[in-house]
Amino acid sequence: MSHAVVTGNNNDDDASSRRYHASKYDIWALGITVVIGGQYISWNAGLAAGVMANAIALGLTGTGYLCLTLSLAETVSALPFAGGAYGLSRVSMGYFCGFLVGCCETLQYIIYTSSSVLVLTDMLVVCLFPGITYFAIKPLLWILIYATILALHLRGHHLFWRTNALLAAVSLAVLVVYIGGSLPTVHFSQYAGGPAWQFRGGGAAFLRHLPLTAWFFVGIESLNTVSNMVARPKHIIPFGQVACMLTLLVTSASVFFVAVSLPPGVASLATDLVVLNAGFTTMLSIPAAAATALSIPATFATIYGFVFSYSSILASMAASKLLPSHLAFHHPTYQSHPVAAAAGSALGLVFCAVTTAASPNIQLYNVCMTFGFLANVAQCWNFLYFSIRFKHVPRTFHSPLGVGGAVVAIAVSLVQLVALLGFQE
Predict the structure, then answer these.
(1) Where are the transmembrane segments (predicted)?
(2) Would you list the domain boundaries of the chain?
(3) CA distance readout (Å), 146 to 103, 164, 339, 361, 403
(4) Alpha-carbon separation of residue 203 from 49, 178, 200, 206 (angstroms)
(5) Which tens digits make up the pLDDT trace of 120-150?
(6) Residue 91: which of 217, 4, 10 has the closest Cα?
(7) Are 305 and 34 in contact (CB under 8 A)?
């Protein structure tokens, strides 16, 4: 386990002193940046299975991610790896399986980013070209989105973390305004559909829509990839990761309750492009296009955060000779991985193009989460292996759920995989 942290040539003391070291707040904010956009979009399609069914699914998925987060926090408090899941997987499962786990996690983040880019593109079209269908402009918007984010990542260092803090603050503030400002018009019994919308379609519908609740939490596990940018990762990352997960649990429950309790009702909400639109149009008396614009920062933030995550993993795998060495290039001044970020983004553009051309035959999100839940199982297995074989390694954080929490997270991930592989149309 020699590749605990991927670093550049930081032997120069002056360069090291100028390097930005992320704080607990930065880690918390990065988690918000990566995840919070998923609470704005797409999860509402799961309401087709019923409001109560979706609430149960949200509770199940949230429990799984909480258990996963606590397990990962303990792992990183003892053995921080900048490369995410693949580092320990090489030890617990073998070199080849570790490589496969790394590929699963990387593909999950690249594909999830592509899915978010497609949604952000639709938002921009709604805001900038209402009522007009310009198919030719969408690829240009994809390129513009990726290019903007790559430019911010290329400079890395202080700019990356300042931008991250700003995106997290804006994204969370918009959500707080939505929740607080909508409370006067919340009426669950009137707008949540009543008995007819509690459970719809039986168990098959529940499982078909279960993976959509992962939109609320996916990406929280990626915080382990930031170890090389933190001065004391064993202390700072667990705190930021757990604090972020608790924040997400509160916001997810609040957003879900408020969203299903607003006019015009759950039947309309289930097909909306942007979940928050109904609340903002009612609260601020603005058109739908203007309301959609309020969700753009959080969706952009999600893409911004995931590009960092997959570039870190690609660079770490390349440094371990699992991928071409060029991907491991670490900018000595900006502390970024520009080659890895560009390569992952280029593949993301391919996924955008293929999905658009093949739609609706390819469900990008389902492919993404299949890789994601496989990686989650591997990470929990790593925790179990670590707990048994490396009891002697000191930790700064202990999961209050211990081995049982990891087992629960594995069970939830396996149920999600069954839903993805056996119950999708």
Answers:
(1) 25-43, 55-81, 93-112, 132-154, 166-186, 206-224, 236-262, 274-294, 301-319, 339-357, 364-388, 400-423
(2) 21-423
(3) 21, 16, 14, 25, 40
(4) 9, 32, 9, 5
(5) 999 999 898 776 666 778 899 999 999 999 9
(6) 4
(7) yes
